[in-house]
Amino acid sequence: MVRITVCILETLGILDDVWVKGLRQSICSFLFQTSSSISFNMDINLPDGSYTIEVGNNTFLKSSDIFFKVDKTTYSLKDQSLKFMNRQIYSGSDQHGNYSVIKNFYLAGKANISTSFTIYEDYDAIIFTQTYHNEVKGTSSDSYDKTISGFPSFRVDSYDTALGYLSLDGFMAGDTKKHIGGWNVQTDAIGDGLQGGPLAVFDEQGRTFLISPFSRFMAASAWHDSEKGGNIFCGIMGGVDEVPANFTYSTILFYADGINKAFDGWGEFLQKQYGENEWYTWQDDTIIFLGYWSDNGGYYYFKTEPNKTYEQTMIDLINQEINVAGLNMGYIQYDSWWYYTGAGNGVKTWQPRPDVFPDGLESIDNSYAKQNGGKYDFLIEDLGGLPLQQEFWDDLFNNASKWGMFLYEQDWLNGELDRVKKLKTDLFLGELWLTQMHDAAAKQYNSIQYCMANPRHVMQAIALPWVTQVRVSEDYHPGGEQWRIGITSLFVGALGMRPFKDNFWTSKAQPEDKSGKTEPYSALNAVVSTLSMGPVGPSDRIGAINTSLLMRCCGEYGHIYKPDRPITATDLQIKKKAFTGLDMEVWWSFTKIRVNSTAIDVNWTWGVVLAVDTPTGLQLLKQDLNFMVDVVLCITRVCRQLTMASQHHSDNSITTPKNNIEGIPDFGWRVNLNYECIVKCKPFAQPRFSQVIGFIGLGIRYAKEWWKMRRLGRKMFIDHMDQLFHKAIYGAPIGGIGCGTIGRGYRGEFARFQMVPGIYDHTVIQANQFILCIRKNGKTVYQKVLTGQRESSKSLKSWEWQDPREGDVYHALYPRSWTVYNLDEFNLRLICRQVSPVYPHDYKDTSFPMATFIWTAENKGSEPLDVSIMFTFKNGRGVKDDGNGGCHNHLFDLDTEGRRVSGVSINHNIQDMKCTYCIAGVHHNDVSVTCKEYFNPRGSGQEVWDDLKDDGQLNPEGGRNTCTGKGEESAAAVCVQANVPPKQTRDLEFTLTWDMPIIHFKARENFYARRYTRWFGMDGEAGPRMSSYAAANYKTWEQKIEEWQKPVLENKNLPAWYKSALFNELYYVSDGGTVWIDPVEGQGGKLVRVTDPKDPPIVQEFSRFGYLEGHEYRMYNTYDVHHYASFSLIMLWPKLQISIQYDIAKAVESEDTTRIKFLTSGENGIRKRLHAVPHDMGDPEDEPWKRVNCYVIHPTCNWKDLNMKFVLQTFRDYSASKDEAYLKHMYPVAKYVMETAKKWDVDNDGIIDNGGFADQTFDAWTMSGASAYCGGMWLAALRMMIEMATILKKEDDVLHYKEILDKGKVSYQEKLWNGSYYNYDCSKGGHHDSVMADQLAGHWFLKASGLQDDDLFPPDRVLSSLKRIFQNNVMMFEDGNMGAINGTRPDGSKDISSCQSEEFWVGVTYGLAANMIQEGLLEEAFKTAWGAYHVCWEWYGLAFQTPEAYMTDNIYRSLGYMRPLAIWSMQWALEKFHPNLMSS
Q1: What percentage of residues in the chain have a pLDDT greater than 70?
Q2: Following CA atoms 1469, 1475, 1477, 1478 in sequence, which dihedral angle do they give, to the nearest 10 degrees?
Q3: Would the pLDDT of 1229 be above 50?
Q4: What is the pTM of this model?
């Protein structure tokens, strides 16, 4: 509401007592009605007519003078020539509700004129009105761009509050001269005059006043009277010399807490005043459907195909692009090339030229102006002409409708205003001209587009509803910047019309085009056009239209996908420009999905943000986005597409080492420390509109479950409400397997902590650093933090950071990494080698929570150097809980495990689990080790910084005797110093260990000891001893790592990138939320390990092992995904794979009858059925292993792949281990799951049938009936059951499964083979014949396990299918540099029936490549796998966080995922099927 404060000065003698009493009563009555919610205050001084507008205590606007031009004389209030006569205050109501009016009457010479303030009770708006009560002449100014009156007026001044402004100015709806800047005495670029438009004034909080005409839009104007500062006067345009009696003009001032909110509220208010336009936009087919445009910038703008007329060219276009290519375009726009033009390129006769359309459009009678022999009255002035009769427009539109016209584009509106003088001097002519045009169009149901309109034309269109769209940018030219429409769309969209960006090329270049023009940002133009809600108009040459790109803008029949409002610039963008001068594009829009029926009631809001040219580190907050008030799921961030050059193939990997660095392997993932990933990726959040309906029920039920979990203090097992956003910072993590991990950035950050079992904290801790100090001749000459970058300026202000430099490199080959620093100014080179104890077939050291950092200092100079490295570390994991208090640090010095170490233990609790970090330096003859027991990581860091700088060592004094209190944190430091003689090297060694021996999951029902406690105990005091152990044994670890990796690294037959991928993808075995644990119980006052005597010896010996499906998909040992990843375990740690199998087998024979609701279907069921393979072993936010199947999206007891995958893994593992005891144990369980699966063969044809929902690992991609994926695994499982039964001499079982197999293998071929590949499924669905990348999953596993049955999978059909997959799913996307997309249509286009069908799954790609290797397609295999590695590790910046999936538009899903470990299936295939290649 608005508070009006009125100043009444009775001493001036202006007011009598009765009037004052009435005024007070009226004002008090008004204030009483509106005082409950005050938005802004307007102080009116009645005697002098001045007013001030404030928000809170901050002044935004102050009035200037009031003036009127009459009889060639200016009368103003300031010089008292404008005489106050009377005042009225009254109230009323209209369509906006109740209002009050303060009206002042003046005498300007002999003219009676009034001004008034109308204040609405329910709106933050004031209407300023000026009324001429008698006819007035001699009013014109000396310039058309000035005004003949001034009310309201505002001073362009500086106030206590910093203010900014936005003004629309120029043509294309005010786009060409729009300006954003500071509102102060220096302001010099406010849009005014005939080309000016609305003006917004705002502060840094976004509190905004919007000023614009409210009536008589074609006669309105504003005048900025000074080059800088000055005043803004609102009134009537300066060329008007006569004003009739009772002529009224109004200005609106509208307020809102936000720039977008101000425009939207202002637009709604105007539409309520003049009638809403929304309905009419939905009658405009050019807004609803794709169309082809031949406007300026288009390929056929005044140009045809060689030796053809325009008519032939357009017919060819229709035949090729619509009839042949199948692109559903609803119309074609014909620009100004088809009719006769006259002087100034204006219309001479609006009929088709015979040379353009020999057969004509339709015969019409087109003689127009009487001056030219026509029959219509025209106003002709120089090069300008204006029709004056309604009949002209009626005939024009009537005739044009006969040739099928349904949109009329009125171009050159600004030119008409410029050329026709009377439009600038007549109060009514402009409005009459546009109204006549509109009324004629309305009779024919024709829509109108305004092009080159000034803001006044756009505002007039608020009263002309068939004006449905407005051009908001200059003409398109390939490669230009005219897509930047966020500001003008804010103006046009608020008035209910659709902004139009103009046409664009969908392809980078046009065939055989010699102009040299290119469009590098076709996708950006497409997304802007789509989100604008205006027309989407390709303009390429025939054959060059990118159908795939356009079909992402629209549905199957060419109807354009639309948000609920045109995308516009955010307040953040506008404020940044106004207050800092920063130019960027950050736009927003949203879509509301409403479904209301007896079955479901949905009201969702999906937000979209488009960001281009944004600075690094820009933060977009919730309050910057209006739609966030109602948002249900998430926002997506759409960025300018950065296309990947097709030459990025495996021989040109940008992260493969190109040169040898002594002491570092020649293979791995290598980047410079100043490397920045330029691609900004975003998590998958919004499916296509065609896919949304399938998620509506799921979304509702998911949201309810999410809130339920939140109220219980838990998170959902997949948290779609808080997705993990992309940070392209990670390098190889540290720590063994199952002991908790600490991530590292490639610049050395300590980041991404997984200390709480299965839970990730994606934090970067500023206090955890390595700091280098160099001293020469007893003086410190250099001291800086080497690792990471400053995360916050609030702490450690005394520390100086070394910026990453060209030539300094990071190299990762998991489980080791190297960082090289070249300090050439000191002739010093440093290499930091990071080592974790992870190597195959070890089940002891590989479980240890420790890492070493060996810094090698090489002095290349001629003078000795004293080199000190200081290692600092703090308690916790970078979260609020770090300040819970109770942390205490202790110095230690010991050599119990063979090497002496000195360091500090940091003792604290993490979610009530005891945890001790230990940092230590390693002693030897050439170094000294000193420690700092405590410093405050939240302080300036001055003490420890200066201590090091003083002499390159640390003074142990200054410790702390007490535990930290609430709100305090604790850090420690260890320094190793060495004197490095010229031309020599010295090693400075550090260890980092963490002792968190006893853990529990969120439910706290069971407790576990981590595996490493078998050797270091469970008392939580082992940290110092582990430090000594790490120092004594890291060289042995490295020896075993090198022995393991050497055969691969030295094999010249393998691509360099593959060597990196193979080992670096293994990071997930330790950094997959992994736990390796023994159950413990309290006995006799202490914890002891307990074992189930029923557990097989291998489980008792090698403990329980679990890893998450993904960092974001929090489910342990998700079995359908582990199926792919299991190759890494069976090859490297087979006992862990066998342990998982025993766990799964035990779960198969269990049942959990807890009733749950499945989120997709809404059906109720039980959590776990007997003799069904579990989907997962549980959620760390609950109690895994005790409660399995935390995945409640679908009833996985009916998934058709889980049971098969158990059988396949059982036999594959037996084929590797030859463990007959294992086979005997597993065989009965395999029989159980096969008997359960037999029930899914509903037509008894020997093949199981999918149930018509997503009942397998592709859990959003529906399968019906027999399918290539599940059917193939069923056949493979049958074949394996026969083999296992044969080994175990189960003759009856052999016959039983053979009978089913004999029938099933025939059905499989008959139902699914189509002559080229296996169909997706045998249904009649629209995607039944899609080419699925994983269609041969059954064959792959069968052959990998040493069984090949050509009757099941005929070799020629296998080879044909793989080649078709390679052709369609690999090579059709970025020239084969993206991996394998899950599904394509037979023509090679994406299968968009499901969001997952158009995803690339990294693990599936690697598995497919393994299948190709098995079939001898080595070149195709490595090309396929290269794409997945390239996208994740090089293009999208997802190193050491490989996702489950990615898409073609910089979208990923589920960062840090299990399935990519399937790359080890490639190595399995190479070793088994190409031993000569591997041994050479």
Answers
A1: 92
A2: 80
A3: yes
A4: 0.63
